[in-house]
Specification:
The protein has 112 residues and is mostly helical. The chain contains five helices and two strands.
Amino acid sequence: MVKRKDTLERKVTSERKKKEIFNQSPTKKPSNAEIKEIVDSIWVEYNPNPNDELDKKTIKKFFADNISSLKLKPLSNKEFEKFYAEIDEDKNGSISKSEMVNLVSKIMKQKE
């Protein structure tokens, strides 16, 4: 029970931090540490095993859950497939934390 409560508290805290950074003023560029915090919060929320990478289904769920806060337009399946191929830099079929850092950096740059 304690582990479940701890996981829930971490998830709520990370979600709050992610929203705070994504919704900050477009004139304030997030630091590398803030981007890493966003990625860490994504891993807490979407990946029960922090050592694993995120698969395509999980990335699709992440975008569906966060499309409005990211201020992005919804992607068709074809657009998503193209987008996923671009962010999967090593072409191994899943997204690593470093690939997610690059993605979040690009999203934040688009907000400027």
